[in-house]
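W.,

You were right to be curious about this one. When I first looked at the sequence I had no strong expectations either way, so I just let the prediction run and decided to look at it fresh. Below is the sequence, 331 residues in total, followed by the output.
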Amino acid sequence: MCTRARFTSTAVVLSVALAALLSSPPVAAADGLPVVGIDARPVSAPGAKLAYVTRRAGHETALVVIDADSERRLRRVLLPGRLSVPAVAYDATPSGITADGRKLVLITPRRAYPRAWTSFAIVDTRRLRIRRTLRLRGDFSFDAISPDGRTLYLIHYPTPTDILRYEVRAYDLRAGRLLPKPIVDPREPGERMSGLPVTRATSPAGRWEYTLYDGPEYPFVHALDTVRKQAFCIDLDGLGRPRGSLWGAKLELGGGGGATLALVLGDRALARIDTRTLRVSGSGQPRRAAAPAAAEQAGVPWLLVLVPTVLLAGAGSVAARARTRRRRARA
């Protein structure tokens, strides 16, 4: 189960958007997450020496190739329109590049939620040219791409009233079509998926994408098999942590070929997941190499979500009272 509760407060929707805007750098175009202002870090293929980042350039987009280690700029080209490297979590985790590094997916930044159409550009990284563009009806963000570059995985937001509700859709690039059915956990095919993506880890070969979500009831990890078009939800209901307490957490793969997945917050591993059996075990033991304190790690500070929520809720209450007074005056 991913979640059974729905979290549909308009105040929360607006406050998350405000929090993202306050915590994001101004240099790049925001990506397709359901709020504006989250700018992806440079993206690179596993073990690659090159990384890619986008910058605004008037009505065009500057695609910049940098050294993955030093971040020294190596090349810069202009692409038509506004495009961005996709961020797939609120800690600015990037995605969009194939395992061989030859294909890069960019997304048109959103200006509002929801949007009626979503566009993507497929870039040939050897020539730094757009090979094709996709335009889909509805509100989508980018989720993943298969190692062979033939399948895109997109997050679809099916309702304008619930920013946390989503479904995973697959797009067949060879056939040029969106596959008709959402990708769901076969163990819980009827469960609605809802939550905010906190952070992500990718398996060494690029096949598996593990995304930590902060859900309405409890956090969970969404495990997406980009080769077999399958997904599994790994509940973390045993953590006993309040909502919002995992902002700043990280997912770290270990073992041979990513056999284990650790949920790390600060210097402690809160849980470990066997990626073969999907079993969760708790652990409060310090890691061998301590990570930076959670407050120093990238992510959306939860206080920036809570405080605007209170303010927006108060503003909504004032507006409601004003509307009531106007109706009474007209009566």
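Here's what jumped out at me. Residues 184-321 form one domain. And, maybe more interesting for your project: The longest helix spans residues 302-330.

Coffee later to discuss?

I.
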